[in-house]
Design brief:
mainly alpha
Length: 337
């Protein structure tokens, strides 16, 4: 368990490692290339916001793989479903969304997000019991059957909400930006960064300071040993899967508001970025996922400004560079299975 716990430390070392210096190093290089500090601050905030939303969606997936050894290509289904459920709730609370009050706006978004998380988590439970449970231990079958589940969910969304994209106008209190001289900080992106940091802090504290977190870390290290000690690792597997699905639903709502439009295939589309982040961070590592999400978000925004033609492939190039340096990802968890 001690070995597993050490793998979950990102900021615990007295001297920063090269991995921990990647994000600040990327920021410094971008500052030199961009030249204008005001533009750099704006791009950096946009990149951090994008990275935080990707982390929210990807964190559950990487934890599920680390604990359950499941390649869930259907994770995007929870993102799309959460987005559509959340938008439906927010539409029902349109007076709150249209109110000039920030509290009312956040209340509507918060309720929409909570319902989306509940529905996505419940669907995740059914998904694990009916689709994933029969294919434990077989990665090829997991990829095929979960991808099929994603396609089915997309078609169900078409039936329930129609084939057209649904616009999501942000409430007035979250539109626009704060301007400090030439520096522009968009309100919604500030909210996204704060929410992402809160979720990362909550997950880190849970993993490090609680008994459940200890069992999760130990389960990643050696699940058979945890079962031998008398703990129901199977029930823990299901709980982690449900939480990961709920986080995907929350991420779907946040991503929809970020893009200001939702579509049925949005989950499949964003899964490309999610898997890049998970691979960069190291399969099963929450801290690695957080670091990878920040790198991808920042890289996308910097390259979109400096070299727009390269922006679409920047995340893949980043993944290739990281894997050439560290084939198992930046912070891979210990495996004792």
């Amino acid at each position: 368990m001690r070995a597993a716990a050490s793998r979950f430390r990102l900021f615990g070392a007295c001297r920063p490692s090269p991995v921990q210096l990647l994000v600040p190093g990327l920021m410094v290089v971008a500052l030199v290339l961009v030249g204008n500090p005001s533009t750099w601050v704006t791009l950096t905030l946009a990149g951090l916001a994008m990275g935080m939303m990707i982390f929210i969606m990807a964190s559950g997936l990487t934890l599920v793989f680390g604990l359950m050894d499941v390649l869930n290509f259907g994770h995007g289904a929870f993102i799309s479903l959460g987005a559509f459920v959340g938008v439906t709730v927010m539409a029902a609370l349109s007076p709150w969304m249209a109110s000039p009050s920030l509290a009312a706006n956040l209340g509507a978004i918060g309720l929409g997000a909570l319902v989306a998380m509940a529905v996505a988590g419940g669907f995740g439970y059914l998904f694990e019991r009916t689709i994933i449970r029969p294919v434990y231990g077989d990665h090829l079958k997991q990829i095929l059957i979960t991808m099929g589940g994603l396609i089915v969910v997309e078609q169900v969304i078409y039936v329930l909400w129609g084939p057209d994209a649904i616009p999501i106008p942000r409430p007035d209190s979250l539109k626009g930006a704060f301007a400090f001289g030439d520096v522009v900080l968009e309100k919604y992106r500030i909210l996204a960064v704060c929410l992402g940091l809160v979720i990362f802090a909550a997950m880190s504290l849970t993993l490090r300071r609680t008994k459940i977190g200890l069992l999760i870390r130990a389960g990643v290290e050696n699940s058979e040993m945890v079962e031998t000690l008398g703990y129901r690792i199977g029930a823990l597997f299901i709980a982690v899967f449900v939480v990961g699905s709920a986080l995907a639903g929350l991420g779907g709502v946040m991503w929809g508001l970020y893009q200001e439009v939702i579509t049925a295939p949005m989950g499949m589309t964003v899964m490309i970025l999610i898997f890049i982040v998970v691979i960069i961070g190291g399969l099963g590592s929450v801290e690695g996922c957080f670091l990878g999400a920040l790198l991808v978000g920042l890289m996308n925004n910097y390259t979109a400004y400096l070299a727009p033609k390269v922006a679409l492939g920047s995340s893949i190039l980043l993944m290739v560079a990281v894997l050439m340096w560290r084939p198992e990802g930046l912070l891979p968890p210990a495996k004792g299975r």
